[in-house]
């Protein structure tokens, strides 16, 4: 492509970028796709025989400062899983998106002006859900996360780069919140009740923030490869069979605690109103869906989970919604620099949803712990 400069409109620009990649066919249509909060995602339709569509994404460079490392990890993870599946096929269909190289054989396209784009194969015939309602679907979600952890359990964490330092380190998010509070224009004058509420909630969680990081630092919990972001819309279902067939959005797959993954999967999968609801005070954590996710997850991973791992599953499930609420609230205070927003108070409302969910999870902690023990057998 000669240029993606001012003279091209956005549609022409995306067409021209899609053509940087080594796809098989003529591009017939490109449309925005999915509901991700971080990257810009497009579905590119081709008229070719061998490949019908692919996903084109602009990597959010504000968030991921080293896009080349993100892509290096993605290639390593997808190659590892593909090779492992060839040696030891699963008893069910499982698909991994593949990185499509540029015509110059690169795993991403660097515009030279601060934009980084990638192309990955589209998992055809799939769909993702923002909200779960059915325990059978929830069990599939848990199974999918378990399969993902199990498939990566023999890839050394040292093989992957930390693409987002501080990601899922609750005490670091707390420091970022405290920095955002200082001289914040949103906190001068009379504060809205929602802002006051968030500040009060955060105070009640201060003592618990470090529980997982302390256990990690003391060597009680091993570093493994975590997905980092296994919320339910990052799990793809086959439209025909209704079975989960893939876990996508591998940007944050890096060394860490898989506990956060289970927590994240549960917080997003057991909230019947979904994380985008404005009716935040009615948000609840559904124990039936929780049981179904755990019943899917734990059997896949029980052969490598240690006794200490089990001890910290419940604290992680309790902590993760609070952590996300803290991240949303801090981003609101910072002027929405991280998460994409659709309206000015969006991150504030999202924070309220997560704080409400965290408090409901906490009130059911004993039941969740018993559930884990029961399924573990
Ligand atoms: P973000 O980091 O912004 O969340 P994702 O990688 O999760 O971006 O992509 C956004 C959405 O696009 C996903 O939730 C999913 O619905 C869809 N999607 C992404 N990659 C694929 C793929 N390879 N096949 C099918 N759908 C995909
Ligand atoms: C982001 O990229 P997406 O939309 O799948 C975020 C997650 C949050 C989630 C909340 C890299 O996930 O950590 O839990 O929003 N991803 C990153 O919806 O920050
Ligand atoms: Mg996503």
TrEMBL record:
Coiled coil feature spans: none
Extent of the signal sequence: none
Domain Aminoglycoside phosphotransferase per the UniProt entry, residue ranges: 30-274
SUPFAM superfamilies: Protein kinase-like (PK-like)
Gene3D superfamilies tied to this protein: 3.90.1200.10
Any Pfam family matching the protein: APH
Record InterPro entries: Aminoglycoside_PTrfase, Kinase-like_dom_sf, Pseudomonas-type_ThrB
Protein's recorded name: Slr1880 protein
